[in-house]
Design a protein that fits this description.
The protein has helices spanning 9-15, 22-32, 68-72, and strands spanning 2-7, 39-45, 50-56, 79-86, 89-92. It is α+β, with helices and mostly antiparallel strands. The chain has one domain (2-92). The two termini are 17 Å apart.
Length: 93
């Protein structure tokens, strides 16, 4: 499960920083209330500008965040890369 929790850059200017998608907010609350560790991620466009950030608890067998946030949400906004926090650093998937 993953959820967008904040908008940034051009998207923030257009709709504000607060996510108004009810399902995203429900998913974020479920993630926060689980005992599974949470990983932060962010979605960037081709100019390396951050459009959105979020949280997930879905890690693959290598401990990496899967592509779902980018595939299911980011592509609609021109995002081409996903970064997540691993060992205190932003890592590109």
């Amino acid at each position: 499960m993953w959820a967008i929790t904040r908008y940034h850059g051009p998207l923030e200017e257009e709709v504000g920083p607060v996510v108004k998608d009810e399902q995203q907010n429900i998913d974020a609350e479920k993630i926060r209330n689980c005992d599974i560790p949470i990983v932060m991620f962010r979605l960037l466009d081709g100019d390396r500008e951050v459009y959105a950030s979020g949280i997930t608890q879905d890690l693959d067998k290598y401990g990496d965040v899967p592509f779902e946030p980018l595939d299911e949400w980011g592509a609609d906004y021109g995002c081409v890369s996903l970064q997540y926090i691993k060992n205190g650093q932003w890592v590109e998937l």
